[in-house]
Amino acid sequence: MIDIKLHTPIGVKDRLPEEVRKKRAAEQAFLSLVESYGYEEMESPMFEYSEVFSDEKLGSTDPKDLFRFFGRTGATLALRSDFTPPIARIMATAYAAETGPKRFCYVGNVFRYSDSYQGKLYESSQAGVELMGSSSVQADAEIIALAAKSLLAAGLTEFRIHIGEVQLFHSLLEETHLSQEKKERLKDLVAHRNYVGVEEMTEETDMPPQTKELFLALPKLVGQEEVFAKAEGLVQSSASKAAIRNLRALLHAVQSHGVGEYVVFDLGMVNSLNYYTGIIFRAYTYGTGYSVIDGGRYDHLVEQFGKTTPAVGFGMKVDALLDALDYAGVKRPSGGIDGLVAYRPAGKDAAYEALAKFRSQGMRLEESLLGDDLDQNVAYAKERNIPSVLFFENGDDLIYVREAEELGYMAVSMKVKDLAGKAKEEEK
Q1: Roughly what angle, to the nearest 10 degrees, separates helices 195-204 and 209-217?
Q2: Residues contacting residue 118 through CB under 8 Å, at least 6 positions apart
Q3: Cβ-contact 147, 281 below 8 angstroms
Q4: Measured between alpha carbons, how far is residue 79 from residues 50, 52, 335 in Å?
Q5: Angle (nearest 5°) at CA 390 between 389 and 391
Q6: What is the structure's pLDDT at 365?
Q7: pLDDT tens per residue, range 285-338
Q8: Looking at residue 402, what is its pLDDT?
């Protein structure tokens, strides 16, 4: 019989120190970048009323995918499945009287069941930004540029951001002149990239020839300027033509940010989230079966909480990013302990003085709990991959043991007063 106390539930995992260090490094690189653009970090509660996430107008999560429970008052609560609805609520309440753009960023965990586990975590880490209060192309471009620069800051260079447009796709559906039921069926086929099904449906329905040609061409309408030129020759409505003009303007704005090479426009992109109203985008790279960033414009979400505010943002899947970084072989600072400090009784005062001094300078030092056997302390350092050992023999003398390439651990006897100079020399 399995002792369940020794295992984590399906969909969650432990994070050991090395993984936590890498995760924190990725999150800090993200925060440093977006804060340089004026984004301010905020936190939302770990759980909210379930309607925040599952309401058809407000939320983005199927109720069956929520971690729900009853509060002591009987209200149905849910663990946070998405950051955007809570931030929209905060915007509509805490900033109800403010005008002009507001820039927010966040880092935290989200919780969501998956019908097919397949390695997906039910608890995952997410980092993201929301730009609220502007409906401009410049706002869309800034968000997409930050998505690209976030991946670059993490160390990825091989990725593409696919951009679609909700309004454009809806206008294309209108051009089919199909019933609402058939439009939904066609949308579902395109969303699942079932282009055999799309072809069959275009043949069995009576839609304009140009529109048929357009839907059959959707798999190939992925690129930049050439995509717009092709689509302009096939669309009919003024709404579709206007959406294409907006996408062309967005491309030029993204190029102004210096990240144009990382974006492609995918006119067949469809998103399942209810609240997106304009551009939608996803970033893909090697080493993960899922997108590493999802985002888009949601101009009507905040008003469901009482404040009319256009908005655009994205969420980065930190766990997927870490998988991609490992796959790409990106070397990241592993952190860890800089040194082990051990001492004989006569060297205790000097050891504690060194510990205080070097820790105040940012070094990560571990005090030995193994006693005053030098060999035992060096063996412990080797086992833990600690690069150096400071062994204080008395107030004046110490043995400095450090890891040297191809030579193993080397020991040098020296005076305590020379230690600081030795440390500075090795930093250079």
Answers
A1: 170
A2: none
A3: yes
A4: 8, 10, 32
A5: 110
A6: 95
A7: 998 878 999 999 999 999 999 999 999 999 999 999 999 999 999 886 666 789
A8: 84
Round to whole Å and give the CA distance between 420 and 424.
Answer: 6
Q: Cβ(385)–Cβ(336) under 8 Å?
A: yes
Query: What is the per-residue pLDDT across 181-199, written as a single tens digit (0 to 9) for each?
Result: 888 888 888 877 788 888 8
Instruction: Identify the segments of the chain with pLDDT beneath 50.
Output: 117, 428
Q: Rounded to whole angstroms, how far apart are CA atoms 83 and 72?
A: 24
Burial 77-99 (b: 16+ CB within 10 A, else e): bbbbbbbbbbbbbbbbeebeeee
Long-range contact pairs involving 412-421 (C-beta distance under 8 Å, separation at least 24): 416/350, 416/354, 416/392, 419/354, 419/390, 420/357
Token representation of residue 106: 């966040």
**CB-CB contact of 268 with 221 (8 Å):** yes
Q: 164 and 266 in contact (C-beta within 8 Å)?
A: yes
The H-or-E segment that residue 131 falls in is: strand 123-132
Q: Three-state DSSP class for 128? A: strand
- Left, alpha or beta for 177 (phi > 0: left; psi -120 to 50: alpha)? left
Helices 195-204 and 180-191 pack at an angle, to 10 degrees, of 150
SS3 195: helix
Give the separation between CA 92 and CA 102, rounded to whole angstroms. Answer: 12
Backbone φ and ψ for 300, nearest 5 degrees, come out as: -115, 5
Residue 214: count of CB within 10 angstroms of its CB = 25
Which among 131, 97, 102 is positioned nearest to 307, based on CA atoms? 97
419-427 and 348-360 are packed helices; what angle lies between their axes, rounded to 10 degrees?
Answer: 30
